[in-house]
Specification:
Strand order of the largest sheet: 1-2-3-4-5
Helix content: 25-40%
Shape: globular
Number of helices: 8
Order of helices and strands: EEHEHEHEHHHHH
Strand content: 5-15%
Oligomer: single chain
Number of strands: 5
């Protein structure tokens, strides 16, 4: 179901798009469409007023692209040569991140490829934009998933903490008390 957040309508799947159109939408104003392949929806796109819409990494047919741009929509193109989709509309599943691990090659999994990409040196603008877009997309998906939940995140491990001079070791009861929070 498309998510409405204030005046913004988030469209993260083809099903979301189809529900809006079937529901009688005539305008895309305030639609934020993330990573949805709309090439098979040219006829529907041509019937919508695109002013105020933002499409992030959404493939569209040539005629639809012209209509969207001329009508005032903002289209962000795909960014080539990335090991991830910076516009994804949801969180990663373990199956996605570790695809190919069964073959015994962690370094070829999406998890490893994405991590290696984040460690590449340089301050390339395209790299920074892709990272910011992806971080925002994942943060948004995480907010949606955790809405109304009380959550504690723990990052790093004891070896990390022990390597920081002066950092006290966490009490053994820390994880137990978090479970009761």
């Amino acid at each position: 179901m498309p998510r409405v957040s204030g005046p913004t309508v988030e469209v993260e799947t083809l099903e979301d798009f189809d529900k809006l159109v079937a529901g009688g939408a005539t305008s895309m104003r305030s639609w934020r469409v993330q990573g949805v392949d709309l090439r098979a929806r040219t006829d529907q796109l041509l019937q919508l007023a695109p002013q105020g819409a933002i499409l992030l990494g959404c493939p569209v047919g040539g005629q639809a692209e012209g209509h969207l741009r001329a009508g005032g929509a903002l289209l962000f193109p795909s960014i080539p040569e990335l090991p991830f989709n910076p516009y994804r509309g949801g969180l990663y599943s373990p199956e996605e991140l570790y695809d190919g691990l069964d073959a015994g090659h962690y370094e070829l999994t999406p998890d490893a490829l994405i991590y290696a990409w984040t460690r590449e040196p340089g301050d390339d603008l395209a790299h920074a934009v892709a990272r910011a877009l992806h971080d925002h997309a994942i943060g948004d998906a995480l907010d949606e998933r955790l809405h109304g939940s009380r959550v504690v995140g723990v990052m790093g491990g004891t070896p990390c903490l022990a390597s920081i001079a002066g950092m006290p070791k966490p009490p053994a009861s820390a994880t137990g008390s978090l479970g009761r929070a």
